[in-house]
Each structure stands twice: as C-alpha cells, then as structure tokens.
Design a protein that fits this description.
Blueprint: H1 5-25, H2 31-40, H3 55-64
Length: 65
C-alpha cells in the first residue's frame, strides 16, 4: 500500500486501528477490509493475542451436545 499526504496518513491510522481492534478485541469486519489490513500487517506476529469465540461457534457446540 502506498500512503501519501495527510489524508493517506489518516487512512493508515484507521487501518491500524482496525487491525488492533480485530486482534486484541475480537472485532469483526468485512473480508475486503480485513484483506487490506492483513496485507498491511504482513510480517507482524503477536505472541499473546487473545482468542475469541463467536456466538456461532458456541451455538455449534451447544447444539451438538
């Protein structure tokens, strides 16, 4: 991604916030947006990132028992 100028800095900051919200808070975003964010974050690895269980995952476990 090529960011230039103040408006481009705002875009970079916004994508960074999406990445942090997704990794650390479990926020969900569109596949298109996450694709852009993951491309930007290529090479970044977080050792202690929390794991979040979605409602759908919980419901699958409850319905199977």
């Amino acid at each position: 991604m090529n960011f230039q100028g103040d408006n481009e800095m705002d875009k970079l900051l916004a994508l960074s916030m999406v990445w942090a919200n997704h990794v650390f808070m479990g926020c969900r975003y569109s596949d298109e947006l996450l694709g852009r964010v993951f491309a930007m974050a290529k090479g970044i690895h977080v050792d202690d990132a929390p794991h979040f269980t979605t409602r759908d995952e919980i419901m699958k476990r409850v319905c199977l028992h």
